[in-house]
Amino acid sequence: MLITVSRSGGFAGVDKVRKIDTSARRDAAEWEGLAHRVLPPVADGFHYRITIDGQVLDLAETGLTGDQRQLIRAVLGEEA
Prior knowledge:
The protein contains 2 helices and 4 strands. The protein has helices at 28-38, 66-76, and strands at 2-7, 16-21, 47-52, 55-60.
């Protein structure tokens, strides 16, 4: 399993990306278990990417705030 985590922003604006390949690790089962636990529980749920003036939000349907849901529906032309 290949796990990639990226971080951006912050005061210094330093981006960081790190990849972990679990295939050759002795603790692979622990890494893979953790990775599966952080994935959204709804496999068929929608995922959204909202870009506002260059800022990007990647969101799963299950974790949307009311304002995010309202913006998505308005932009996509769906009933609230």
